[in-house]
Amino acid sequence: MWEQVQQAPPDPIIGVTDGWRADPDPRKLNLGVGAYRTEEGKPYVLKAVREAEQQILADPAMNKEYLPISGNAEFNRLARTLALGPNSPAIREARVATVQALSGTGSLRVGAEFLSTHLPASFPRIVYLPNPTWGNHKSIFGKAGFQVREYRYFDAATRGLDFGGMTADLTAAPPGSVVLLHACAHNPTGVDPSREQWRQLLELTRRTRLVPFFDSAYQGFASGDLDADAAAVRLFAEAGLELVLAQSFAKNMGLYGERAGALSVVTKSREVATRVESQLKLVIRPMYSNPPMHGAAIAARVMGDPKLNAMWQEELRGMAKRIKAMRQVLYDQLRARNIPGDWSFVLKQIGMFSFTGLSRSQCEMLVKKWHIHLTLDGRISMAGLSAATAPYLAEAIADVVAN
Ligand code: LMR
């Protein structure tokens, strides 16, 4: 019966880790998936997370009952407050519907499904994604029935933002289209709009009547400051816009495999928010019934306990700082080898990734000859690099650029 099933290609991001695992070379490096590593190249469980986990296990009230369809209510409350801020008018007026979902991907998927069913009938089912964007965005919105279009984002010549192209494409979008915005630390480019450009994007979104959908996967990772990294989302929410927000706790709490995330829909009133939440539950129930409890319980404790929260923020600053330090180390190593071109973008780009501009064949050479595993669009995870491995990467880049 299954003989006709075709072999699917490996996932462009997760498949990189499979390739790295299978590589027997001792020099191998995994700079593919965006996962934080220590200076020793090891996965890192935050101390605040370990502490929260111990508290949960020691709690006699702990059980394994089903969570509600909308998940852990305390986690939802803390997650939306983290993004929208403690003084958010939308939260004060109880006009935000939040559900726990399966990290960033699951939140985006539930959000896309909800929009596809509940946007007004007169709105087109079109989503505008930045070019380039995280590879999964296209499939997520495509599966939810959206027509996927792109807006210009990255300028290959300057390795910066093509703001003119972005605003031209979004101005031309049909009213009612969804626009996907990376809240901070754009993946894969590490290039974000400036504060002033965000203000212009807000006006454009309002004028063109676009539906903003923020993907917030790196709050705290861009700058080490949770509030600073939420500035764009807060700007839009405080201007009174209705918006959708997907939050992941994979990176900023290191909860990758726990799948802790939240989807919030900011509405005009408490009544609407209540109805929206009831419909989000109808999306979730036939998909996976209700979300897993452990990751959300950890995240809720870490956010809600002042001592753990302070510990978390300190570790977050430490992780962001190490990634920034890696940018400097790599830049110095590249400069020391006199590799042609301006590599200052390595220092300027924000967040976990650096978008190198290396071609697909250069990337393939990095994988095959140098055992450096990366996505073939030229993205490298700076979080996977260490002072010990940066010289090797620079040497490999010098080689593939020269060939
Ligand atoms: C990445 O872009 O590497 C991460 O967001 C992990 C993933 O799920 O793709």
UniProtKB/TrEMBL annotation:
<dbReference type="GO" id="GO:0030170">
    <property type="term" value="F:pyridoxal phosphate binding"/>
</dbReference>
<keyword id="KW-0808">Transferase</keyword>
<dbReference type="InterPro" id="IPR000796">
    <property type="entry name" value="Asp_trans"/>
</dbReference>
<feature type="domain" description="Aminotransferase class I/classII large">
    <location>
        <begin position="27"/>
        <end position="397"/>
    </location>
</feature>
<dbReference type="InterPro" id="IPR004838">
    <property type="entry name" value="NHTrfase_class1_PyrdxlP-BS"/>
</dbReference>
<keyword id="KW-0663">Pyridoxal phosphate</keyword>
<keyword id="KW-0032">Aminotransferase</keyword>
<dbReference type="InterPro" id="IPR015421">
    <property type="entry name" value="PyrdxlP-dep_Trfase_major"/>
</dbReference>
<protein>
    <recommendedName>
        <fullName>Aspartate aminotransferase</fullName>
        <ecNumber>2.6.1.1</ecNumber>
    </recommendedName>
</protein>
<comment type="similarity">
    <text>Belongs to the class-I pyridoxal-phosphate-dependent aminotransferase family.</text>
</comment>
<dbReference type="GO" id="GO:0006520">
    <property type="term" value="P:amino acid metabolic process"/>
</dbReference>
<dbReference type="GO" id="GO:0005739">
    <property type="term" value="C:mitochondrion"/>
</dbReference>
<dbReference type="Pfam" id="PF00155">
    <property type="entry name" value="Aminotran_1_2"/>
</dbReference>
<dbReference type="InterPro" id="IPR015422">
    <property type="entry name" value="PyrdxlP-dep_Trfase_small"/>
</dbReference>
<dbReference type="GO" id="GO:0004069">
    <property type="term" value="F:L-aspartate:2-oxoglutarate aminotransferase activity"/>
</dbReference>
<dbReference type="InterPro" id="IPR004839">
    <property type="entry name" value="Aminotransferase_I/II_large"/>
</dbReference>
<comment type="subunit">
    <text>Homodimer.</text>
</comment>
<dbReference type="InterPro" id="IPR015424">
    <property type="entry name" value="PyrdxlP-dep_Trfase"/>
</dbReference>
